[in-house]
Amino acid sequence: MMTLVKGNTQVYDVCMVDVVGDYDTPDEVTEWEWVEEKASYKHTQNGSHGIWEFLLNVSVIENESNDNDIPERLKPVIQNALEQNCSYILFHQGT
User: Is 0.70 surpassed by the pTM of this model?
Assistant: First the structure.
């Protein structure tokens, strides 16, 4: 995981495999479901392999989610993004 900076906007870059481990398809992973629901930008089922990419606005997560709503394995990721003052979190499959 790393932070990308462009101007004043910082994006926390997250490969979901680093968070949840290996999986067959994203639609079978609870964390992917939560990310898809909260995302402000969705890029799914594209290309021959159906690559998934989601961009979450951190302020939406702060305002709309309570701690119980966030899947356990995503809590440290979101906390790291908040501590680094990131504006967005980009979740992807690393491909």
Answer: yes
